[in-house]
Amino acid sequence: MGAEAILRLRQIHSNIVVSADEYGALSTAEADLVDGDAISFGTELRHLMQPTVLTADCIPLALWSKKRRRFTIVHAGWKGLSSGVIEEAVSNLGDVHLQGIFGPFARSCCYDFGQEHAVELSSLIDVDMVATGRSGQITLDLYRGALEILKRINVEVIGEEPPCTICNSESYYSYRGGDASLRMGSFLI
Questions:
Q1: Could you give the CA distance from residue 172 to residue 178 in angstroms, rounded to a whole number?
Q2: Which residues of the chain have pLDDT under 50?
Q3: Residue 181 lies inside a defined structural domain of this protein
Q4: What are the DSSP calls for 13-81, one per residue?
């Protein structure tokens, strides 16, 4: 990828955005000691490090400001959505003209989730995220929640709808689909 090191966080399902500018050329081992769920960076550090988030069923989301030439890679599951990680990531970019794109994650067709918790999360985010899966079970629609958040803060979403990691386990790792130890790396090139 052309970088000397990978900057990867110890992801804790939070709203913490880490600025890669503060860490210079950390080794991968050192970067793994930093807690957070989003990495903000500018183009000037790209030759030194490749900011990366790991996901299996959580949302990988890339956000960027063309004007400021800054980027943020976000790891957002239901805990991240509820704690405001997307809003923090957008705030960190410091621009009102942003774009974003989703990577693969667990979609409402398969993401089993208790109705009580789905209703509670829907209320917190103020959008109905309760869905019914393919086999009639209650599921959570992370995509609907994330899209609503991005719409409210005026982020233009580009690209196609992301695939479900659980439905497409032949192509993607899925924690809920049985790949408990494997993850996918998301980064910008």
A1: 11
A2: 25
A3: no
A4: SS--EEEGGGT-S--HHHHTTSB-SEEEEEGGGTTTEEEEEEESSSEEEEEEETTTTEEEEEEE-HHHH
Distances (CA, A) of 133 to 59, 103, 109, 136, 166: 18, 20, 4, 5, 12
The reported pLDDT for the residue numbered 42 is 81
Q: How many residues does the chain have?
A: 189
Residue 163 lies in a domain: yes
Range of the domain at 106: 5-175
For position 107, which CATH number holds?
3.60.140.10
Residue 16 falls within a domain, yes or no?
A: yes
H/E stretch holding 185 reads strand 184-186
70 contacts: CB under 8 Å, gap ≥ 6: 40, 41, 42, 64, 93, 94, 95
pTM of the model: 0.88
Total number of domains constituting the chain: 1
